[in-house]
Amino acid sequence: MSPQLTVLFVLIYLHCHIALGSDPDPVQDFCIPNLKVGAILTARLDILPCKNATEVVPEDFVFSGIRLPGNFSDTGLASIPVSPAVFPGLNTLGMSFARVDLKVGGINPPHFHPRATEIVHVVQGQVYSGFVDSANRVFAKVIEGGEVMVFPRGLVHFQMNVGKSPATIFGSFNSQNPGMQRIPSAIFGSGIDDELLEKAFGLSSREIGMMRRRFFPKKVKS
Ligand SMILES: *[C@@H]1O[C@H](CO)[C@@H](O)[C@H](O)[C@H]1NC(C)=O
Ligand SMILES: *[C@@H]1O[C@H](CO)[C@@H](O)[C@H](O)[C@H]1NC(C)=O
Q1: pLDDT in tens, 178-210
Q2: Coil, strand, or helix at residue 50?
Q3: Relative to the CA of 53, which ligand 1 atom is closest?
């Protein structure tokens, strides 16, 4: 292959890689989903029909649902994802947001977002925050009110409130649909065969059973 052709193929490869590496560029100012036409399906946000622009109002670009903390989980975590499903004005803009509150000692368990880099802004509190790179090196430190930290796309990250008061954190994502996998429930709460988990973690079937009961999604009472 001639050097010119090689350069051309590399450029085409890089271009495709970059083009597929983030949400698509918008082809219009905004697209407020028209809920009269179809429900919001998170997997198919990009094909939702838009409201006629003449019907779009300022309120479509404002979200008030993160003034207060959400509901706290067993680990002292309350998170409110601000995606187009709750904030239609974000649709097609390639961004989303979250509010996370941590009780004293509360944790946000190790998790990752397959489709987004995240910047977290600690509004108040002292939060041990970090991520693990693909060489299994951990980058973690305590950050305080007013500081931000970035978690590169797809890398496992975590937070724990190590202060003496509740912590509030805002996170922003460069995807309108970042996706989220919590490591404990992805491993022990997803239904992977027990024998594989026993061999992978060197645990007995009794220990795997304990992990499974802890992380398998609790059945909702009907
Ligand atoms: C949007 O609404 C305006 C005013 O009602 C109307 O004139 C226009 O045809 C509509 N556009 C579309 C694409 O339906
Ligand atoms: C918290 O839980 C209540 C009761 O289940 C629910 O109505 C409310 O929407 C929840 N709040 C958030 C932010 O999810």
Answers
A1: 999 999 999 999 999 999 999 999 999 999 999
A2: strand
A3: 1
Per-position DSSP letters for 89-150, written without gaps between them: GGTTSS-EEEEEEE-TT-EEEEEE-TT--EEEEEEESEEEEEEE-TT--EEEEEEETT-EEE
Q: What residues line ligand 2, using a CB cutoff of 6 Å?
A: 70-71, 80
* Global model pTM greater than 0.85: no
Ligand 2, residue 71: give the atom nearest the CA. Answer: 1
> What is the average pLDDT value for the chain, to the nearest integer?
87
Question: Which ligand lies nearest the alpha carbon of 52?
Answer: 1
The superfamily (CATH) of domain 59-179 is: Jelly Rolls (2.60.120.10)
Identify the residue whose C-alpha is closest to ligand 1 atom 12: 52
Nearest listed ligand to the Cα of residue 80: 2
Closest ligand 2 atom, residue 80 Cα: 13
pLDDT single digits (tens) 45-86: 456 688 999 999 999 999 999 999 999 999 999 999 999 889
Every domain of the chain and the residues it spans: 59-179, 186-215
Nearest CA to ligand 2 atom 12: 70
